Each structure stands twice: as structure tokens, then as C-alpha cells.
Amino acid sequence: MARSSDQLAKLKLRFDAIPRAVREAVIPALDKSADQLVAAAKHLAPEDDGDLKNSICREAGEHDLQRVVKAGDDKAFYAMFVEHGTAETPAQPFMFPAYRLNKDQIQRRLKREIGKAIKLEFSK
Question: What is the superkingdom listed in this entry's lineage (predicted)?
């Protein structure tokens, strides 16, 4: 997805408006949610030699409130082909089902932690 510099500037302003204490309070919930998604994707991923499952991991994103869950590395470069299929092989999705299974719980966790952090920050 192409991003314009105006969109990034507006997003940066919105992130800067969030108090630092609230951001720091939410980071453990982000990490827990990303780890939950990694575990679900590893559970659902097909296993031949284990390279695909071992390649599923969590990484830091572009800013401190972003986590990236990805599959595939030098050994398991074929992760996208397994997820979506090819002309010769049917799709064996594992990332999108893991996301759909955990989406509601992750959203509830993040909303709860954000709410707690905001209440704590503004009750001072």
C-alpha cells in the first residue's frame, strides 16, 4: 500500500499525542497478542520439514506501537505459496485463519489495556 508523506505526518502527530506512559503500558499487551498470533500460526502451519513453522516470528514494526508477525525466511521462502496456493498445489492457509481465530480476543485485550492505562494516567 502506497503511503503519502501527508498521511505519515498525520499518523505521527496522532501517535505523538498519546502520552508516553500510556504507550509503555500497552506494549506488553501488544507483545502478548503478537506472541499469541505466532503460536496459533505455528499450530496451523503444515509441517513437512519444519522450516515453515520455524520461520513464523514476531518483529518490531515501523514505530513502537506496531508488531509484525511474519512467516518465511531464506529457508522457508515459500510461505506465501503455501498460504495462497499455486497453479499446481492447493492453498493451505495458516496465517489468516490464525488471525481470524484470535482477532476478537486481541482487540479486547488491547482495548482493556489502553483503557486501564488512560484511566491510570489521567487519574494522577
Answer: Bacteria
Pairing mode, strands 57-60 and 67-70: antiparallel
Angstrom distance (rounded) from CA 62 to CA 37: 19
- What's the whole-model pTM score? 0.82
Q: How confident is the model at residue 3 (pLDDT cuts 50, 70, 90)?
A: low
Q: Residue 67: what residue type? A: R
Which pLDDT score, from 0 to 100, does residue 2 have?
53
